[in-house]
Design goal:
globular; alpha/beta; 224 residues
Length: 224
Amino acid sequence: MSNLYLDIETIPTDREDVRAYLAASVKHPATISKAETIAKWNEESRPAAIDEAVAKTGLDGSFGRVCVIGWALEYEEVQTVYNATDERILLQAFADRLRIKASDQLSTTVVGHNVSGFDLRFLVQRYIVHGIRPPAVIARAAQAKPWESDKVFCTMTQWAGVGNRVSLEKLCLALSIPSPKSDITGATVAAAVAAGRIDDVAAYCVGDVQATRAVHRRMTFASQ
């Protein structure tokens, strides 16, 4: 049994057709009824509401994009692939560089924080969107139940319980593990990428993988 530590960073869609699709569903509040008030809302508030709807796609594998993937096998150095503009290249690069023997595919556990609730599903959805077969170990873990810890070990689920949440930062604090957070957090990844700081986002992802590995080792008593 071996462990694959995994983390991804995601950003909103850049597709104009998706933006148009989302914009069509943005309506003025039901509490507004006067024509002049509706017109004012459409002019002053609707653009920001559309931007907000687009921003939320960063958490939706149907439309959002993966911009960074970080991973490490057991104690190996954390690797990353990242691309802010061509997700297909990024996904293929990860599939090519993730070298797990066929004989180890069924004995490798994917470990991550909220990995069963977010990372795996998002990754597989994006592979499907691009018509690329995901790595077998990723596909296997994505189909696992959150409590099937031989396939996927989600540090959030294993700590807080199915359906509950705990941040990686809080969990690190509880276990006296240095926090991976800096000026970049999950909430600021999109802004950092838009500002041309994809290298910094990749470094942040490395920190998350390292912290998750340390948390997992503490939770499984592999490290005291």
